[in-house]
Specification:
Blueprint lengths: L1 H38 L3 H17 L4 H15 L2 H9 L3 H21 L3 H17 L3 H14 L3 H11 L2 H13 L3 H11 L2 H13 L3 H11 L2 H13 L3 H17 L3 H13 L3 H10 L3 H14 L3 H10 L3 H9 L1 H19 L6 E3 L5 E3 L1 H29 L5 H11 L5 H4 L16 H4 L2
Antiparallel strand pairs: 1-2
Helix pairs in contact: 1-2, 1-3, 3-4, 3-5, 4-5, 5-6, 5-7, 6-7, 7-8, 8-9, 9-10, 10-11, 11-12, 12-13, 13-14, 14-15, 14-16, 15-16, 16-17, 17-18, 18-19, 20-21
Length: 442
């Protein structure tokens, strides 16, 4: 019985081997016939050979999708792209993608090999269609962009890089525009990258050109805190104090949201170095540093001549020394508050100067406005000098160095102070006859 089973299994194995061998021969024969079909120049004969090859391949056990893949590759070698595409369409899912990608790259090469613009456009469209069928549109767009870039056609390259969302390539094109001196086009292109480095580069270009609004948009969209700080400082430099401080507040919030308290504290310390106590207070508040925030909030109140509020804050903060100094020096602080009021009123009433932009983008002041400002300060000069002399007399009598320094800083906000008085000691530097209207400008 065992011998019978053994002989039976051996017979089956032999039969299977014979069948497999026969099928392999059919497949090999089918491939040979297919090669002849591709070499045949007569279309009718070629078609007959393809049919015969298909029959042999099916006889050899290949399924229709497998045969379609073989046909597609054969047509590719012949550069018969139409039949290759038709064959790949009937191949298996993954094989279809591979086939169409190979077809797409061959069409891409042909598109850029021709000197006929119409043929280039037509073949390129076909290539991109094949890339789409291969689920490789981004890859194909990047490759097409590279072809245009190598030809020096960076405008066309950019179109395809954008389609591919090839951020590195978009930035490369932007850099090329900048190297050619086309800064605006460079900035616009950097923005198309829609990434941090692109937003920063665009913002920096706009900022350098003093187009602060566009610079802000770029920095804001890219969350470029470094750029936003630069923009905020520019607002302060332009006299837009409230807007600048609000911007610093937004930057601080962005840092806090990133759990980066250290950067907020660094910003606050930088403002202290500039004696901008109000902004430092805001930043310390954002960082949750209540003691420091209250200290510099009190400083701000002192410089606003809100002495009662300042003392309340100082006492609550354990800083009785400065609070006591305020009480002791009220006989000097009250006259200083009056001087500040008078100088503020003179400053508020000064004629405003309108500006226009010349053909080079430079700000140009209105001559009539400049003349009006000159006349105003020639008339107001003596009154301003008299007030500054009062400031000198009263500041010099304040014994507490901390309080004295706060008053000094308060009055140095008027540019005339540092010209008429010594900016450190507040001693009188210029006598009335020596003071010009320019020295008196607040």
């Amino acid at each position: 019985m065992k011998d019978y089973i053994k002989h039976f299994l051996f017979g089956i194995l032999c039969c299977a081997t014979l069948v497999l061998t026969a099928q392999n021969k059919d497949i090999d024969k089918g491939k040979e016939v297919l090669a002849k079909a591709m070499a045949e120049k007569d279309n009718a004969k070629s078609g007959e050979l393809v049919t015969k090859a298909r029959e042999l391949l099916m006889k050899g056990g290949l399924k229709s999708p497998q045969i379609s893949e073989l046909l597609g590759n054969a047509y590719l070698e012949k550069k018969d792209f139409t039949r290759a595409a038709s064959s790949f369409s009937a191949a298996g899912k993954e094989e279809r993608k591979v086939g169409f990608k190979k077809l797409a790259y061959l069409q891409l090469e042909d598109a850029f090999a021709t000197t006929d613009p119409k043929m280039e456009a037509k073949t390129l469209r076909a290539a991109m269609s094949a890339f789409t069928k291969a689920d490789a549109l981004s890859e194909g767009s990047r490759a097409a962009g590279d072809k245009y870039y190598d030809k020096g056609q960076i405008d066309n390259a950019l179109v395809y890089y954008i389609q591919a969302d090839a951020k590195d390539k978009i930035e490369k094109v932007a850099t090329d525009y900048k190297a050619k001196g086309d800064d605006i086009k460079a900035a616009e292109t950097y923005l198309l990258a829609k990434n941090e480095s692109g937003y920063k580069a665009a913002g920096d270009i706009y900022f350098a050109k003093k187009d602060y609004e566009r610079a802000f948009d770029a920095y804001y969209n890219g969350k470029i805190t470094e750029g936003l700080i630069k923009y905020a400082n520019q607002l302060l430099a332009n006299g837009k104090t409230e807007e600048g401080e609000q911007m610093f507040g937004k930057v601080a919030e962005a840092y806090i949201n990133k759990d980066d308290k250290a950067s907020v504290l660094k910003m606050a310390e930088e403002q202290l170095k500039k004696n901008n106590f109000n902004l430092a207070t805001t930043l310390f508040d954002k960082a949750g540093e209540d003691v420091k925030a209250n200290k510099y909030r009190a400083y701000t109140k002192v410089m606003e001549f809100s002495f009662d509020e300042a003392k309340t804050l100082l006492e609550a903060n354990g800083e009785a020394s400065l609070a006591n100094a305020i009480t002791t020096n009220m006989k000097f602080l009250s006259p200083l508050a009056n001087c500040n009021y008078t100088l503020d009123e003179i400053k508020k009433a000064e004629p405003q100067i309108d500006y226009s932009t010349d053909e080079n983008g430079n700000r140009v002041s209105n001559k009539a406005d400049v003349q009006a400002l000159e006349t105003y300060y020639k008339t107001s000069k003596d009154a301003i000098v008299s007030e500054l002399y009062k400031v000198s007399a009263n500041v010099s009598k304040i014994a507490d160095p901390e309080l004295k320094n706060l008053m000094r800083l308060r009055f140095l906000k008027y540019q005339a102070t540092g010209k008429v008085l010594n900016p450190e000691s507040f001693a009188i530097k210029l006598q009335k006859p020596q003071v010009s209207f320019k020295d008196a400008i607040l």
